[in-house]
Amino acid sequence: MTVTSVQDAGSRPHGLARYRDALSGYAFLAPFLAFYAVFLLYPFGLGLWMSLHDWEIVGDYREFIGLLNYQELWDDPYFWEALKRTLQFAAITAPAATVLGLVLALALNGPLRLHGALRAVFFASNIFSVTVVTLVWSMVLNPDRGLIANGMRAVGLEPIAFLADQDWAMPALVVTTLWWVAGFPMALFLAGLQQIPPEVYEAARLDNASRWAVLRRITLPALARTTLLVVVLQTVMHLQVFGQPLLMTRGGPANSTRPLVQLIYETSFRDWRSGYASTVSVVLFVMMFCVALLQFRLSRQEGD
Amino acid sequence: MNRTFGDRLILVLVIGAAFVWMMPMLWVLSLSLRPNEELVRSTAGILPWPKTLEHFATLLRVSLTPRWLLNSVIVAFGMTALTLLLSSLAGYAFARIDFPGRRAVFLLVMAGLMIPEQAILVPLHAMLADWEMHNTYFSLIAPRLAGPMGVFLMTQFFKAVPRELEEAAELDNASRLKIFWSVMLPLSRPALTTLGIFTFLFAWNDFLWPVVTATQPEMYTLSVGLGSLQGNFAMSEGLGFLMASAVFASAPMVILYVVFQRYIVQGITLTSGK
Amino acid sequence: MADVLLRDVRKRYGAQEVIHGVSLELKHREFIVFVGPSGCGKSTLLRMIAGLEQISDGEILIGGRRVNDTPPGDRGVAMVFQNYALYPHMTAADNMSFGLRNIGTPRAEIEERVAAAARTLQIEHLLKRRPSEMSGGQRQRIAIGRAIVRRPNVFLFDEPLSNLDAALRVQMRVELVQLHQRLDATSIYVTHDQVEAMTMADRIVVFRDGRIEQVGTPLEVYRTPANTFVAGFIGAPKMNLLETRVTAASTGRVEVALPGGRAELAVDGRALASGASVTFGVRPEHLRRTAGEGVFRGQVKALERLGRETLLHVTGTDGASLIATDTGDSPVRIGDTVALALEPGSGRLFGGNGAALPPAAASAA
Amino acid sequence: MTMKTLLPATMLLAAALGATPARAATEISLFRFFGGCSDEYANVTDLSKAVGECGIIQVLANKFNAENKDGIVVKTQSVEWGVYYDRLSANVAGRTPPDIAVMHRSVLPNYQVRGLVEPLGKHFATVGVDVADFVPVAREGVSANGEIWALPFDLHSLLWHVNADLFVKAGLVDEKGQPKLPGSPEELLRHAETMKARTGKAYLAIPSQADPMPTWQYLSWVWQQGGNIVDAEKREALLESKESREALRLLNVLYAAGHANRKHDYTAAQQAFLSGEAAVLINGTWGVDVYAAQARNPNSALKNYVVRDMPNLYGKEAVWSDSHIWVLPKQSKPDAAKLKAALTFLKFLNDHNFHWARTGHLPVRASVLASAEMRALPHRSEYTRTATIATGLPPIQYQRALMDLLINELNSTWLINKPQDKALANSQRAASSILRRSRRR
């Protein structure tokens, strides 16, 4: 995301008009700013403050403990486990979604109505809520009556309890997530492809370029910016993964799929340790901030 | 351009992939239309259906699902309408009114894009608990109005509107509010439509915050309600019922998607800040 | 009574001043054209009159009333924008009536005024359409109609014809002038096209770099440009300007050296020493091919046959180049060497600073 | 689109409002786990028709709604067990607590210490709940600071559910031909080997995936050695004690030797026992009624079902136990009518304590325990010691958080072969940080 400046070539008014502009400017902003301040800025600050406390979500126990929560976090194997799982999940899902989106976009960037219909199919799963997606996929992956189990039995294989299996649970969540989100990068890549001027392809055809050469030398380089954008958006999104493990595996088996957000949720609402949960939130915020910053740096370089 | 063999092969492969892609949806739809007694025996196959609509009838009759639907409708429409209003007001101010501190305030607001919802989940909950406002439409909607994405989009949009239009209106004796309401808002219909659809989708599918703030079933949204049904479904006798709930919950989105597909796809490029 | 009066009007963006103290008096019902290259400040000044830009210093009076802090809508001005700035979501009729509705004009009167304007502009059949359903020329008329219905004291035109094709532009030029004559208002018209300025204006104001270079009727500006800039800007093809030296100067007469001879001009030469650097300016139509000596001699490098006349681009041996007119059927070919004579009484002389030297008659007084 | 969506929505709203029963004089909300079976028992008020925890509590509520004279309507909100406490605390934290909630005794300190539940002593006297009739262990479980904080409903603990036929087949029987249970860890392993050798079946079935069962067994063994996992006085965790190591070792030995299947979840373990694939099922009192019913089914592979108290392997009798109790969460806006209605319902529950005991749980009222109808229930004579050896964690806060982390860590030793020492060290560290807050208050 590029935050463009609002400073433009307008004049600096003075006197009465300036006063009028100031008044109307803030009047127009006031409703949003009120919500923004109360429901975003203030909670953010409060979260930082809470992270310095033993602060319980139930009752009114709160005691200032300085950085003790951060110290405990450093020593907390659950935090590190959740961090590891979160990074693992994002590190698999984000590139996979990007590649899948790119492949689909390349395959479906055609003029036929059929292409349009297929695009619509791949994008459609994007519009479901996480609860619908997890419901569908819990059922698909169910070892007893699931779609895949049915198929495996039909060919004489023993069904796998994907979500209860140490080795399969994470891949199962990844596949579920890919099915859910892959339409989004696809749409972004398609938009990127539309922006490549057709003359370039015509020139390439005159140059006898092979399909592969066109892809490698023209299409992919032209999509570099889009790719960066997709990777960053996907990474940020998947660092926030929550619904899928919560609803499909509860973070199990044996903690192998519990991400940070679920840790925050459980620490706060199950264990009542809101202060500590806030500490984890701060870490999550810092992580995502770094990714955003990285994108900013990269897109800057790109622009040079 | 001639269709080459390669093109055809790709097309065939993609059609196959699309079929696989749709399978889960079709299968779930099929399950929702088959009687439970049959599902206990076997869940295989997609055809023949429909066999029964009993699950949908049950859904409307005995469960809280209609209530959840109503909640979702209220929350989604409320959030959409208010987001459009707040975002366009603020976006207009940022794009078009030259007031002292504009740049600073804009940066402050855009900084909010960096704050993920998870980072404020816990304090937000504490805050609304202090107000004793959980389990209200207010608590479901209000915190979601603070996100700066809509403001960002509307600012970008309004900046692209030719300044002359506004100047013409100014010469036409229109006040700021009048200019905003009679000139800028009608002009921004495409942007508002896109933002509106996305807000609606987001509101409808929202899970993390509603699951925290709506703790009483009467105040669940469809998304949360469906989540609450999911716990023990593997053993559930009412598999068809559960699948019907899923179909029921996603039907409005599917309709919305079919009708507004163009805007949705356009909107993606917009939201990505390109 | 001056209808629009500018007194030492200045415009600053931060530390940078872009309008440097402009003072101007516009008479009632006058058609004034602001002309100048882009970035000269003419549009800014127009927008300051409209109230769309703040005035940093000085004052503006419209109808005798100081309007520095008056909002645009209350200044009694109407404006036609370069891009028409029609409200795309409103029909033509709504576009035209929007301003009247905003000030609470009675419905019947609005309808009457819109109908009248539509009649005048012959756009009755367009009233129900939206801007997207109209051609450029039609939109232009609606934009003008929107200005007319407000019955302003001052019409402001900001390069209104620049988005039209050439033929339409000529037609609209005429129509605008005719319209102006029917209306009881002052018009201020901004353009960078000197042809528009020449053909439409009662008076032309030539701008450069935020300053007025010259104010005058089209003919005054054309015939007696105040400086080399105006001389070069007004007229097409532009006035030939040659760097040269004074060979002799006296009270009512200055003689300068030209590549093919000498020219004498009736200019007050008291301030000039012999040998001083000056610029000699002459319009192409005042240079004629001659069989005799002439004042300039050179080779024809290019020909522009325009039918009614032919333009000769002639380059002298010292590299100086100028344009002369010849008859439409001129026998001259590229590569020919020609001699050019100066029509008596023509030619302007500009001093070292570019300003025109005062005529001899003035100095006599 | 607005109209298209609004129209059906409005119709649904009308339908929803029409379907809601007219507001009764007093409506109170009941928050509970035990599963959802409101469809199955929609209009049943006959207690004899109710089976299992869910059925019985549902019918109790139905019956109360149908029969009470005060126009009280109890609205049940059944929450899936796995998220029950999350939901409950979310509701309490959100200042929208239910009027009545079920709870485990082990969770009560959290709520009681924070003043989140209504003290009930005086109220019980008013509505006629006889506190003196509670068996001492039950009464102590809901008492603190000289006050009663909840209505005890049962005492439930772990049992060994036994397939007697397999024991006979393996020759693991005493002189009366009854299944012979081990008296030491070594004997347990010997018996398990014998079982495997003679019958080819597993000795144990225990839910081992995403389930607290092994942890409860582990706790029982820790206590049987005279140890504990927390020092109640110092509020310190003792998870790396030798008793703790030994109990965990034993569990893992059993899994490693294949005497229990580490991949079983609750359903699978139960299925293995019911289908005669395992000789002993480790499960709670709540299973007795269900398995007894199964054994009566002629098609069942389980024919001779008997129940046994937790065998004593280490010398000191102890078995993990807990209680279901009913609390009245403190309301931010007290409503006398609702309070009275809620107390009326508690009284009703207490009066029907026997029916709850039909699930297999032990009743909490001395009078019920001693009653003839109680003695007439099947298998009850087979686990009489349980009531006396039942043990719980000391009344400290955060027991649930402690248990959750312990379950996670212990499970990972057999599920992902996490080293036992590491699992205990992790647990110790995490438990300490939890107990730190407990110490501080």
Automatic annotation (TrEMBL), chain B:
Family annotation (CDD domains): TM_PBP2
Swiss-Prot/TrEMBL GO biological process terms: transmembrane transport
Transmembrane domains' residue ranges: 9-29, 68-92, 104-125, 137-158, 179-204, 239-260
Alphabetically ordered keywords of this record: Cell membrane, Membrane, Transmembrane, Transmembrane helix, Transport
Principal location listed in the UniProt entry: membrane
Residue ranges of domain ABC transmembrane type-1 in the record: 69-260
GO CC, one annotated term: plasma membrane
The keyword ATP-binding belongs to this UniProt entry's keyword annotation: no
One Pfam family here: BPD_transp_1
Locations listed in the record: Cell membrane
Keyword Transmembrane found: yes
Membrane-related topology note: Multi-pass membrane protein
SUPFAM superfamilies in UniProt: MetI-like
Cross-referenced Gene3D superfamilies: MetI-like
Family indicated by similarity: Belongs to the binding-protein-dependent transport system permease family.
Protein name: sn-glycerol-3-phosphate transport system permease protein UgpE
Native species: Pyxidicoccus fallax
Automatic annotation (TrEMBL), chain C:
Domain ABC transporter: residue ranges: 4-234
Transmembrane segments: none
Superkingdom: Bacteria
Pfam families: ABC_tran, TOBE_2
InterPro entries: AAA+_ATPase (IPR003593), ABC_transporter-like_ATP-bd (IPR003439), ABC_transporter-like_CS (IPR017871), ABC_transpr_MalK-like (IPR015855), ABC_transpr_MalK/UgpC-like (IPR047641), Mo/tungstate-bd_C_term_dom (IPR008995), NA-bd_OB-fold (IPR012340), P-loop_NTPase (IPR027417)
Listed SMART domains: AAA
GO cellular component: ATP-binding cassette (ABC) transporter complex, substrate-binding subunit-containing; maltose transport complex
UniProt-listed CDD domains: ABC_MalK_N
Tagged with keyword Transferase: no
GO function terms (MF aspect): ABC-type maltose transporter activity; ATP binding; ATP hydrolysis activity
Key words of the record: ATP-binding, Nucleotide-binding, Transport
Xref: PROSITE patterns: ABC_TRANSPORTER_1 (PS00211), ABC_TRANSPORTER_2 (PS50893)
Protein name: sn-glycerol-3-phosphate ABC transporter ATP-binding protein UgpC
Origin species: Pyxidicoccus fallax
